[in-house]
Batch of 3 targets.
Target 1
Amino acid sequence: MSIEQIAAAQAFVNALSTDDEQAAKAVSRYLAADVTMQVGPREFFGHDEVLARITGMWPLTPVYRKATWPTPTERVDHVAVDAQMAPVGAGPSEVHLKFWFNDAIRINRVEHKNVIGTQLLETNKLPSFVKSCVDGALANDTPMVVAYVDDSGRPRTSLRGSVRAYSDTQLSIWVRSSTTGIAVAVGSNPNVELLYRDNPSRSTLIFRGKAYVETDAAIRRQIFDDSPEVERNHESWEAGAAIIIDLSEVGGATPDGRVRMKAG
């Protein structure tokens, strides 16, 4: 192996892990005209197609940008780079690159393998890592989005900082008004969806279920008391309402795992 081959592999990594125009120009001269690139089941052919695939802003570019990319190393017949990704929900935990070269020391073959490290949990109840996301959403500056249908049949969304995991199959929300918005809407149409999104960790969770207003005084007090302090300090005990959502489906991914839940 030569210094030139190591430099070529490094230029490839620099282009793949950024959307920098100069990095794209730098790697271009290291790619053979007939280079091929295998990415999972897909194959890309030729200088221009491979260059386009590894430069610019792709869905995984933000993940690659935060990775730990070691210096390319020599193997028996190729150069390799084995990188560790920062913990993310939707994305690989490892990336493995292998490079082969022609006689002109141009890259003529690349194998690119993404390794998904977070396991998919198929379950009928909320896992603890999902509950933690829900309960910590407001403190994490990612209040959950709640979607419902109003009494005119129009979709509505709102940010809710009081969403909590109420049980293994339920969420709860303390809302500040019992006479407007979602508290009224679920009486005629109980279908709701909730979205949790934390962009830095690429965590996305989607919850679907049916909601109702809980009138039992003890449960109502429990849901109010379990709300974050800032929500309780809105002093909405008299005017507010406790909503419970019976979940039917939950799906998504966080750095702690992927989930596919179907209740019951």
Target 2
Amino acid sequence: MDLGRNSYPGYVCLRSTLPYSRMANNPTLLFLHGFAESREIWTEFTHDFPAEYQLLAPNFPGYGSHDAPLAADYSMEALGEFIKEELERAAASQAVLVGHSMGGYAALAFAEKYPAQVAGLVLFHSSALPDDENKKANRDKNISFVERHGVEKFMSTFIRPLFANSNEQTMMNERRHLEEMGINTPHPSVLAGMQAMRDRPDRTEVLRKATFPVLFIVGKEDLAVTLDTSLAQVALPPVSSALFLDRVGHLGFVERPTETRRAVLDFAAAVFAK
């Protein structure tokens, strides 16, 4: 699968031929990438979305290229403020937020502070729970590894386990592209991103108090956000739904793009039909 690495250069609106001024009144979907990724992960995923949607897919500060300007603050709270700025720039009063992994953590931080601006939330292999002590210890080990050996060597082992076992060999091109994307992430962003994920708070209360519907997309072989972790959260929001996928790890947008794309489209259609 071609993830569209050369598409939509330098602009965060995936409807790149339409300026924000012409799309401000359109239903908005804001796609948020994960750790050591970029907005490129959404290019192929959203290529056939209906034209009436305003599709936004920014790079988080400090991500997207090896020479991306570094962020002053990589915390989830700072990323939540970045989301607010992006929606203001797009003149969007509300949006469905689609967050992959760390993108979901940032979306939850935004939803905690600005719930009225969330029309719906898709936690795409993501979680409102904080890291437990074991996961924090693993983050610290990874931070030390990057400090000693660099980003490139880290990515050679980090990406592979994100795929389900059955997809490791059949999706080598996708794996290599994600590794390249990770290697292209500035060294300080990799370190600060892991620290920010390690230190994020419990936001399950955001789900309990959600005034918006929530969709969980869950890989049954996800080692990063496990099935049990997701099952514990699906019942928390007043209105929620879930897609559970066999033979999928942490990367459903490439491992099962047809099913996950349809789930997001159906969710958005239901949200904006109200």
Target 3
Amino acid sequence: MIEVEGLRKRFGSQLALQEVDFMVPGGEIFGFIGPNGAGKTTTIRILATLALPDSGTATIGGVPVAEDPHAVRELIGYMPDFFGVYDRLTSIEYLEFYAACHGLPHRRRRAVAHELLELVDLGGRADDQVDTLSRGMKQRLCLARALVHDPQVLLLDEPASGLDPRARIEMRELIRELRRMGKTILVSSHILPELEELCTWVGFIDAGRMVAAGPISDVRNQVLTGRRLRVEVVNADEVKLLAARDQIEDRRGVISVDLVEDGLEVAVEDTFQDQDLLIELVRAGVAVRSFARVTGDLSEAFMRLTSQSPAPPASPGRVEPAP
């Protein structure tokens, strides 16, 4: 549904995007992840027809974004990270106004607005002025605004920014519901645990380059190679932890042993038998409180794949997405 190939964009001397490549199949939720300034918003604005790339192509539903922006705007709903609302309008008037902007027939506008308010759980606030709504309610109203013309694709730039935990959960469930309705969704966020629960595909961008992209399980397996075990030691102090580390760090199959709070974190080869490590620690007199496998997550993948270095002025070779 979304295909990006060789996308490149420069702002003055700063190369914001360098040969960006990724794709989002229809019906998926794609988490777009990267540090501040990595190029997420620039990419989304190009997809939303609000900026032109210097080179490369982007298509949505088979329509080239740069060649036919009007057709693309009929296919997409865009929710920017910063948005304005017309405070003096009521919620229903606000959606009717945008329905008119998208050319909906006059007789359909109020019905569509009511349907969308019910969808985003604002049915009881239809006649309330927008300036009386909480931030979370305004976020949901702006998502409803992006849906007035029933687009196939949603581009959501930090939709949970500034929301309290309850409002974030409501936004997450709403995005899931939109996927069940057949929407293809690209969402950027810095709240990685929520993206992990929500997304089916992910893409990591760093310094203007895609460093990994694909189904979330494939990317996680590609980045987080090997396995890690967490060993918590009773009454752990540095002497006990160093002794425990010395006992196991030279064992075949152990890649590394790191001291962590109250215990050890052990990286092992995929074929390593976990129980053998536990047996050896117990035999050596190490008082083990807990012993468990550490599951890699998007936060760890983010730390491994990204850096804080600025984008370089020149473009290196293209990084292919994960298969």
